[in-house]
Specification:
- The protein is of the alpha/beta class.
- It has one domain: 3-Layer(aba) Sandwich (Rossmann fold).
- It is built from 8 helices and 5 strands; from the N terminus they run E-H-E-H-H-E-H-H-E-H-H-E-H.
- A 5-stranded parallel beta sheet has the order 2-3-1-4-5, sandwiched between helices.
- Helix 1 crosses helix 8 (200-218), helix 2 (45-55) runs antiparallel to helix 3 (64-88) and helix 4 (99-109) packs across helix 7.
Length: 219
């Protein structure tokens, strides 16, 4: 059995990546592909507990290095429990965030730098790299507005508060956004950037075009 195919979705909260992941999953499954969806942080029982700690606005005083270590603990569990078994079974894995998020948010936003993130990835994640990363980068202002509106609605509807990062200052998100750009520039084959404030369906069609071409090349 051939190895599966690993696709990650990246971008700021409010970029539309979670919506686009679901749309791509539906498109792939309708064409007979076996698909595994997951997210980081979360996706496993251990990861969901880590997620509730990291993202909850009530989690105060988490040091940047502690935050990064928790992200990698979640990721290592996800690789062991979900991602690697699915790839070994020949499935297409769609993951909402991966190590690029840690490099962007903790490396860039928290100013820890890229080197420590990449070193930890090699050590703790067996250097497992995505085959393709779809980086959604609408305008920074629009992403933040959408994320903050969405999170306010979620708190009102469910009582679940995952707004800890959205309470950061705009300069934090500017650094995060710029680090995403730097990653895309460094790895132009793996990372495909989809920028601009296009409608959901237009973005989906661009993603389908990229994924179709990459899967065809693979076969």
């Amino acid at each position: 059995m051939s190895r599966g195919y690993f696709i990650t979705f990246e971008g700021l909260d409010g970029s539309g990546k979670s919506t686009q992941l679901r749309l791509l999953s539906d498109w792939l499954q309708k064409r007979g592909n076996a698909v595994t969806e997951t997210r980081q942080p979360g996706g496993t029982a251990t990861g969901d507990r880590i997620r509730s700690l990291i993202l909850d606005s009530r989690s105060g005083g988490i040091a940047p290095l502690t935050e990064m270590a928790l992200m990698f603990a979640d990721r290592a569990q996800s690789i062991s429990e979900i991602i690697q078994p699915a790839l070994d079974a020949g499935r297409i894995v769609l993951c909402d965030r991966y190590t690029d998020s840690t490099e962007a948010y903790q490396g860039g936003g928290r100013q820890l730098g890229s080197e420590i993130v990449r070193d930890l990835h090699r050590s703790l994640c067996q250097d497992l790299q995505p085959d393709l990363t779809l980086l959604l980068l609408p305008s920074l202002k629009r992403s933040l507005q959408r994320a903050r509106r969405r999170n306010s609605r979620t708190v009102a509807a469910t009582g679940t508060d995952e707004n800890r990062f959205e309470r950061e200052r705009d300069d934090f998100f500017t650094r995060t956004y710029e680090q995403y750009r730097a990653i895309a520039s460094r790895e132009p084959v793996r990372v495909v950037t989809i920028d601009g404030d296009e409608p959901i369906d237009a973005v989906h069609q661009r993603i389908v075009s990229v994924v179709s071409e990459r899967l065809a090349q693979r076969t």
